[in-house]
Automatic annotation (TrEMBL):
Species: Cynara cardunculus var. scolymus (Globe artichoke)
PANTHER family for the chain: FATTY ACYL-COA REDUCTASE, MALE STERILITY PROTEIN 2-RELATED
Family per similarity comment: Belongs to the fatty acyl-CoA reductase family.
GO biological process: long-chain fatty-acyl-CoA metabolic process; suberin biosynthetic process
Main enzyme class: oxidoreductase
Name of this protein: Fatty acyl-CoA reductase
InterPro entries: FAR, FAR_NAD-bd, NAD(P)-bd_dom_sf
Recorded superkingdom: Eukaryota
Pfam families on file: NAD_binding_4
Alphabetical UniProt keywords: Lipid biosynthesis, Lipid metabolism, NADP, Oxidoreductase
MF annotations from Gene Ontology: alcohol-forming long-chain fatty acyl-CoA reductase activity; alcohol-forming very long-chain fatty acyl-CoA reductase activity
């Protein structure tokens, strides 16, 4: 949609037509995602530990399935892997039921925690409450202590290379 609008705007302006014109309709997007985009980003990620806010592992798995995997975004992977989709997902993604407001994310399975400490080398943390009128204790627990718990965990990891903390800075 945006590329189409951009293409129209470039054509209408006339001047940069030769430099920038291309027709996005000639791109086979399924083919692009399956053979270029996904292969380019996926092989370097051996395993993803995905922290999902949930009371237990089954509930976390259910959330992954219903809120992520079942979305249309995953259609191309489903078509590619067919019946092996579940095996592919379970090899790549380890769902962890947890809560950043708790120390060790509330994970009581110490074997799992140690596995994460050994294997995790990149952490992306975007867990947050984004309500401006959030209850003070919840905002403190999730956004402030949550960041501290992530940072504490980073210091316990043996091979940590990168912590990417996604947040918002406001000047009030
Ligand atoms: N979206 C933007 O345009 C934008 C722009 C700039 C900066 N940011 C910043 O980026 C961060 C994420 O924003 P977002 O838009 O992605 O927010 P979001 O859609 O509300 O996602 C926040 C996620 O954090 C999870 N979470 C909340 N509390 C948690 C806890 N205690 N333990 C584990 N997970 C928890 C939520 O899980 P549940 O599904 O269980 O609620 C949700 O999946 C925020 O700091 C925000 O200020 C966002």
């Amino acid at each position: 949609m945006n590329t189409e609008k951009l293409r129209r705007a470039v054509r209408e302006s006339g001047e940069e037509d030769n430099m920038f014109y291309f027709d996005p309709r000639i791109i086979d997007w399924d083919e692009y995602f399956q053979h270029i985009h996904l292969p380019a980003i996926q092989p370097n990620i051996k395993k993803l530990f995905l922290l999902v806010r949930a009371s237990d592992p089954n509930m976390a798995l259910h959330r992954l399935q219903s809120e992520v995997i079942n979305k249309d975004l995953f259609r191309v992977i489903k078509e590619k892997y067919g019946k092996n989709m579940h095996t592919f997902i379970s090899q790549k993604i380890k769902v962890v039921a947890g809560d950043v407001s708790l120390e060790n994310f509330g994970v009581m399975d110490f074997d799992l925690l140690n596995e994460m400490r050994r294997q995790v080398d990149v952490i992306v943390n975007s867990a947050a409450t984004t309500k401006f009128d959030e209850r003070y204790d919840l905002a403190l627990a999730i956004n402030t202590l949550g960041s501290k718990h992530v940072s504490d965990f980073v210091n316990e990891c043996f091979n940590m290379k990168l912590l990417l903390h996604v947040s918002t800075g406001l000047n009030l």
